[in-house]
UniProtKB/TrEMBL annotation:
PANTHER family registered for this protein in UniProt: SLR0554 PROTEIN (PTHR34985:SF1)
Species name: Bacteroides oleiciplenus YIT 12058
Record field: transmembrane: none
Taxonomic lineage from the root: Bacteria, Pseudomonadati, Bacteroidota, Bacteroidia, Bacteroidales
Any matching Pfam family: DUF3874
Location of the Virulence-associated protein E-like domain: 22-130
The protein's name in its UniProt record: Uncharacterized protein
Length: 208
């Protein structure tokens, strides 16, 4: 919840609930972009021009599937919660008091944003909700990170991809999946360095 965008208790717009299953991979990128903007430049339905609209609402999505998030760099703008029991709907939430407490905390200087530690915790907790692409799954079949004291082999992302293609003829790679492969390696905390040959990654080949 972005408390910074709350102008007052009375002008708060309630959260928008969406069916997350209906959000495509491309739309997730736009949604992530929209979530971080205090002001959005949009054309309203049936509108003739683009307007600058302040964002007052947060977004809530539901899904019957668990593997939802598709960002190969990590999803730190979503807070995923798995519901494991029936929700008690017989409780009345005092929203006015809740928002008043939030405004009071902000007025007193309470931090309302995530710091680096918070983001690391959030990304780690979101891992179980991420989609694992076929290319990433194939990578884990043939490579791993070097353990402490081990010397890995430094390879570019294209060298790794060419090796994987040689091992599996069934996987089809699009230009977009190739361009995001470096982010997949970074998400898996593969050590990297920039060289004259481009970005290289330290990996250990599995004996297969």
């Amino acid at each position: 919840m972005n408390f910074a965008s709350i102008p007052s208790v009375t002008t708060w717009n309630f959260a928008k609930r969406i069916q997350f299953d209906q959000v495509s991979m491309n739309q997730q990128g736009f949604l992530k972009h929209l979530l971080q903007k205090p002001v959005a430049n949009l054309r309203k339905p049936y509108g003739s021009s683009i307007q600058e609209i302040r964002r007052y609402a947060s977004f809530i999505g539901t899904s019957n599937q668990k593997d939802l998030l598709t960002d190969p760099s990590g999803s730190r703008r979503f807070i995923c919660i798995e519901v494991t029991a029936p929700i008690n709907i017989n409780v009345t939430i005092n929203y006015r008091q809740l928002y008043a407490q939030a405004m009071e905390a902000i007025t007193k200087g309470e931090r309302y944003w995530f710091d680096d530690t918070d983001e690391a915790i959030l990304k780690e907790s979101n891992r179980e909700f991420e989609q694992i692409s076929p290319l990433e799954q194939l990578f884990h079949c043939y490579f791993r990170s070097p353990e402490e004291g081990e010397m890995g082999e430094w390879m570019t992302s294209m060298e790794i991809i060419e090796y994987l293609q040689g091992k599996s003829k069934t996987i089809s790679l699009s230009n977009s999946s190739i361009s995001t492969f470096g982010r997949i390696l970074k998400k898996n905390q593969i050590e990297s360095k920039r060289t004259k040959r481009g970005m290289q990654y330290e990996v250990m080949m599995l004996n297969k």
